[in-house]
Amino acid sequence: MAFTRPSNRPDRIDLAQIGEAGDIAVLLADGFDASDLTEVATAAERGSYRTVIVSPNKSLVSGRSAANEEMNFVVDSHPGEQPASAYAGLLVPGGERGVARLIEDQESRLLIQSFLSAGKPVLAMGEAAAWVTEAAGKTPNDSGDAVLALRGDLFAASGEDGRTDAISTFIKTLNLVEAAA
Fold it and tell me: pTM, whole model, 2 decimals?
């Protein structure tokens, strides 16, 4: 009789299924925290979501990983080209320089407002958490390392466990909101 050992490895991502559940807009500008993007994108792909890079940049947007390596991503769309209804949710990674550039961009501010008004899930990480909290009309000091906005409510998370919980809750929330629609 053969026994199989349980594996601690996460399930493999089926590339053929990416995008079946919907698209997640990822609002970026040069200087964003690439680790925030890759952490959420991995969870999104496991949930069969595709990430769509939305940026005021023309063709490429660059960010920094946790190891301070530059990472470049191709821009798929620009703020204002697609309405919030075209996406299942919105991710805004942290990164002081990137968030500062997004704050200066009118179309980026309007995109966040359209997601918040539509009640779509919005996950803001790092420095973006305070900006999204303020855009939602709440006090920015209430935000933590990550903020999940949904239908007018904000849920703040702090610490590594809080960030991980915010990411998994964001993906689960996307599934619930899509199922209710």
Answer: 0.86
